Amino acid sequence: MAARNKITGIQKSAILMITLGPDISSSILKKLPDKLIQKITYEIANIDQVKPEVRNKVLEEFMDMNEARNYISQGGLEYARNVLTKALGNKRAKEIIDTVSEVTQQRRPFAIARKTDSQQLLNTIMNEHPQTIALILCYLQADKAASILSGLPEELQTDVADRIATMSRTSPLVIEQVEKILEKKLSSVVGEDLASLGGVSSLVDILNQVDRGTEKVILEELEKDKPDLADEVRNSMFVFEDIILLDNTSIQRVIREVENSDLALALKGASEDVSEIIFKNVSKRAGENLKDDIEFMGPVRLVEVEQAQQKIVGIIRRLEEAGEIIVARGGDDGIVL
Predict the structure, then answer these.
(1) What does pTM read for this prediction?
(2) Residue 159 to residues 132, 163, 166, 170, Cα–Cα distance (Å)
(3) CA separation for the pair 161, 167 (Å, rounded)
(4) Of 131, 182, 238, 298, which residue has the fewest beta carbons closer than 10 angstroms?
């Protein structure tokens, strides 16, 4: 994970969700708009690891911003500025207030550009028309605009600077069109590496706690853009050992769908808890036959056991989708008797 000044707002949100854990994160996620949920879950799935110092800085920033918002609501912007300046010093207070002000004020054009890394933004707009570059720079933070201007080829720098100085009014329609094109380009750049599966386990932990509606929206959106990632998430969301989370009626329904040979093979490598609950839900005669099948099977390859277990997991997901069994989940996915 990159250093703090290289992390986007969405990435910070993803790190915060991972840091807070699945219980709290799931309750926050389901209150967000679907598009924002999708972006955050993409980032969670794409994060391989988070260094402790990065995690601590993101958490510290979140707490500072939350505190600043409380001060603003109590006594306004100047009151918050004065309190934070006394507590944290002028520089840090200004950083927090500027960030909170930008987040809380009405939407300004090129918001995604202001949040994008300078180098990435430079690479994206370098080949645009000088007037387009000038327009974008006018809406950026001064330090970011300066960094990008310095990174342009020398023959472009003066031209862009001249256009910035002589720019007066620009049609809102032109601004909107340029912003849409830029947002599309930046989104495609940010999304290039989203197939990385290093952070799937973190995403699964959260999705296992959200309600069915939120989970369905996220997985459907993932399926559209990243089907391989969606499959990986689905395969990780319910593993064979999670059978112990099913009620007895559901387990009996699953067993009726499973071939005896697959069930015996799956139990060959199962934990004691899983074996116990399976045998508890078959008749005495069927249980004895199943034990005989396992005993007479002899040594088997691990891959064959895993394939049999995955077949059963597939049956469980199919029956759940059909509403024939219930898989215990977090969120609001309760049971009404």
Answers:
(1) 0.38
(2) 12, 6, 11, 18
(3) 10
(4) 298
- 208, 22 contact by CB (below 8 A): yes
**What span, in angstroms and rounded, lies between the C-alpha atoms of 293 and 297?**
6
Q: How is residue 324 annotated by DSSP?
A: S
CA-based max dimension of the chain: 89
Is 218:38 a contact under the CB 8 Å cutoff? yes
Q: Which residues contact 172 (CB under 8 A, 6 or more apart)?
A: none
pLDDT digits (tens, 9 = 90+) for 88-101: 777 777 777 766 65
Structure tokens at 206: 């959260």
> Which residues, in sequence order, are CB contacts of 262 under 8 Å at separation 6+?
308, 311, 312
Cα-Cα-Cα-Cα dihedral sign, residues 92, 93, 98, 101: positive
The 10s digit of each residue's pLDDT in 142-170 is 778 888 888 888 778 888 887 887 776 77
